[in-house]
């Protein structure tokens, strides 16, 4: 009797586990940290893997591709843009929000296509770039981009194949569609298909074909708090398009939700036929003031019945949906997006994949385990500091800065520095960096004090990109005598309430640290970086002087600790 109950239960449980409609819980964002304008595709031929890409602006390498089998564990698979000659324009000294904007990723007949645009504000002539690969786990396999004609002279290209094999590109603003040739980049005169529901900035289009309709999903309202995703459909790709009467499909506008700015979405189907949407969202509600991580990628389940319209769940921190079974067996050498960094820069290793430069780097400034300095990253000083300025020539001068995305609300970052400056104002340190005009720095700087050069700890904030914000004063502390000749550990802690605390310690006695200052994440929210998100990393500069003393960074640690998933509610990572 007892045994029969057990076995009946066993059978019931087994069939339940295998039922694809069983829901699991997960938390948003699924791609935490600066990951806006997500676009994703499910590729059965690549062992049932989902691939997503997000916008990278000036970060290099750019156009990242993430891979997952369960929609919650995401691995950094590759960067479509990983060689400066693919997009030399990235070396322009323009505004801080220029660069690679929203992309679309799709798979067709053995090839991955990633279409995106490069933007410069000096001249409004967005360059459309179509990258392809047959191996999304290998940077080198990504092609040089085909430069696609841009008759609409706008942004946010989509790529879509019709059943007859024709390739179309939808594009902002007020949505246009052209037929394109993926080999030559030729584009036909575009036809205008939909202006959205009437909000400003109809953009970020994606086309789908389902049940005999062409569906056009777009973003509207601007990427701030009025953002939304809306949809229209037509039996003919040329239109007329009929808007969904219950638009928007996704939004957080006029709500006091924690997940604000929801919009710019993409739709895709998993291997069991369930529909999903990804969108960008800013964890900042309801005030939308403090959001150092900028616009992140969220995931919601969607129901989309035959002949009907997609209905998406509300974006929240705690979600439930018919996720594929948990599976971290993903190809490639990149890290999962939410794991700690424990980087020791061993000899003959390369710079880890999650580390980024601000624009393509001057590679001569960086060396892993240079002769006589094993297990370090050597950064030679750039003449310009992190703020750089108008005379800065990115290709020639370079910026001695390398960083990773802040991916958690609460984290600890530290790195050990060995630095023996000789010239005045030579500096090496750590930075919480949104843009060149908004960064919070703790450096060791060789200050001329009373006629003597003294290596000094300096906490200093650049906030010219965010006027009207009160910033804490600069603080300088002479390096204690007992620390001489030792490596110094510089640390950043992000704590509850979106504060950063920066401190320094001798590595021989890391417990006895000097608290150098605290600053609100408000300083690295919006302003000159309204579309980007915060990085945390290390720098070396001669501050315009004659110094050339390199700094040796070792024991790079970044530990994500907790995510805020609703106002004041944190979950451990
Ligand atoms: C798919 O790719 C193969 C091999 O490259 C090619 O022969 C075939 O024509 C392609 N099919 C379509 C529908 O494009
Ligand atoms: C979109 O707006 C433009 C400018 O107002 C107008 O010329 C065009 O006809 C509109 N297109 C559609 C498809 O509504
Ligand atoms: C949002 O829309 C409202 C109503 O149209 C408008 O008053 C407000 O300025 C908009 N806000 C932003 C940030 O665009
Ligand atoms: C699973 O989640 C989906 C999407 O939220 C929902 O529509 C469905 O009712 C849920 N199913 C169960 C069995 O809870
Ligand atoms: C690093 O590579 C060089 C040349 O490939 C080799 O001679 C050397 O032994 C390697 N060192 C280590 C520590 O692996
Ligand atoms: C510099 O000299 C002034 C005047 O002698 C003295 O008060 C001050 O403490 C000195 N500063 C440092 C950092 O030694
Ligand atoms: C800063 O404050 C001044 C005076 O209140 C105002 O005119 C200006 O628009 C503000 N700037 C920003 C970027 O908010
Ligand atoms: C630091 O090293 C230098 C040269 O190696 C030495 O002259 C000096 O005495 C050392 N200072 C301390 C405090 O150990
Ligand atoms: C960067 O360098 C410029 C010019 O050398 C200087 O005016 C500015 O204060 C420096 N900024 C920081 C944050 O050190
Ligand atoms: C840099 O070197 C030049 C030539 O030796 C000298 O004239 C100049 O004063 C130096 N600049 C600084 C900031 O030390």
Automatic annotation (TrEMBL):
A biological process term (GO) from this entry: carbohydrate metabolic process
Signal peptide: 1-19
Pfam families tied to this protein: GH43_C2 (PF17851), Glyco_hydro_43 (PF04616)
Keyword Transferase in annotation: no
Entry's Gene Ontology molecular function annotations: hydrolase activity, hydrolyzing O-glycosyl compounds
Site (Important for catalytic activity, responsible for pKa modulation of the active site Glu and correct orientation of both the proton donor and substrate): 156
CDD domains: GH43_PcXyl-like
SUPFAM superfamilies assigned: Arabinanase/levansucrase/invertase, Concanavalin A-like lectins/glucanases
Residue ranges constituting the Beta-xylosidase C-terminal Concanavalin A-like domain according to the UniProt record: 354-559
Active site: 47 (proton acceptor), 203 (proton donor)
Family: Belongs to the glycosyl hydrolase 43 family.
Protein name per UniProt: Glycoside hydrolase family 43 protein
């Amino acid at each position: 009797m007892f045994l029969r109950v057990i076995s009946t239960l066993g059978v019931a449980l087994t069939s339940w586990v295998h039922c694809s409609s069983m829901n699991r819980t997960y938390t948003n964002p699924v791609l935490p940290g600066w990951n806006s304008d997500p676009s994703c595709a499910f590729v059965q031929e690549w062992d049932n893997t989902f691939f997503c890409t997000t916008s990278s602006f000036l970060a290099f390498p750019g156009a990242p591709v993430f891979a997952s089998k369960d929609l919650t564990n995401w691995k950094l698979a590759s960067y479509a843009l990983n060689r400066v000659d693919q997009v030399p324009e990235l070396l322009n000294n323009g505004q801080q929000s220029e660069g690679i904007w929203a992309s679309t990723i799709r798979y067709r007949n053995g090839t991955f296509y990633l279409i995106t645009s490069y933007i410069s504000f000096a001249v409004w002539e967005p360059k459309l770039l179509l990258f392809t690969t047959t191996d999304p786990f290998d940077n080198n396999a990504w092609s040089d981009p085909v430069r696609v004609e841009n008759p609409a002279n706008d942004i946010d290209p989509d790529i879509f194949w019709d059943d007859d094999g024709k390739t179309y590109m939808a594009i902002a603003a007020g949505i246009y569609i052209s037929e394109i040739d993926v080999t030559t980049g030729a584009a036909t005169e575009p036809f205008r298909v939909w202006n959205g529901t009437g909000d400003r900035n109809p953009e970020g289009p994606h086309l789908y074909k389902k049940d005999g309709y062409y569906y056009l999903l777009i973003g509207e309202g601007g990427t701030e708090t009025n953002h939304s995703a809306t949809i229209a459909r037509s039996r003919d790709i040329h239109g007329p398009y009929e808007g969904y009467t219950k638009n928007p499909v996704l939004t957080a506008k006029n709500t006091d939700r924690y997940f604000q700015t929801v919009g710019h979405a993409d739709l895709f189907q998993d291997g069991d036929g369930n529909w999903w949407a990804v969108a960008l969202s800013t964890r900042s509600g309801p005030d939308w003031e403090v959001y150092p991580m900028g616009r992140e990628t969220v995931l919601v389940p969607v129901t989309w019945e035959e002949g009907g319209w997609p209905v998406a769940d509300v974006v929240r921190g705690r979600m439930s949906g018919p996720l594929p079974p948990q599976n971290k067996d993903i190809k490639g050498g990149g890290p999962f997006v939410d794991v700690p960094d424990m980087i020791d820069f061993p000899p003959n290793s390369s710079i880890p994949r999650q580390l980024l430069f601000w624009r393509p780097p001057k590679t001569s400034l960086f060396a892993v385990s240079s002769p006589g300095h094993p297990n370090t990253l050597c950064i030679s000083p750039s003449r310009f500091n992190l703020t750089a300025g108008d005379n800065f020539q990115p290709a020639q001068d370079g910026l001695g800065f390398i960083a990773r995305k802040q991916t958690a609300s609460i984290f600890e970052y530290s790195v050990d520095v060995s630095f023996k400056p000789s010239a005045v104002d030579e500096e090496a340190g750590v930075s919480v960096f949104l843009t060149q005009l908004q960064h919070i720095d703790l450096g060791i700087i060789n200050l001329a004090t009373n006629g003597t050069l003294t290596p000094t700890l300096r906490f200093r904030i650049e906030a010219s990109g965010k006027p009207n914000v009160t910033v804490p004063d600069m603080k300088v502390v002479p390096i204690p005598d007992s620390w001489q000749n030792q490596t110094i550990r510089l640390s950043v802690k992000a704590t509850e309430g979106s504060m950063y605390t920066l401190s320094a310690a001798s590595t021989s006695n890391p417990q006895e640290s000097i608290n150098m200052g605290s600053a609100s994440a408000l300083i690295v929210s919006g302003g000159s970086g309204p579309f980007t998100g915060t990085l945390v990393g290390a720098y070396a500069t001669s501050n315009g002087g004659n110094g050339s003393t390199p700094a040796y960074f070792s024991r790079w640690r970044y530990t994500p600790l907790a995510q805020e998933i609703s106002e004041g509610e944190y979950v451990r990572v």
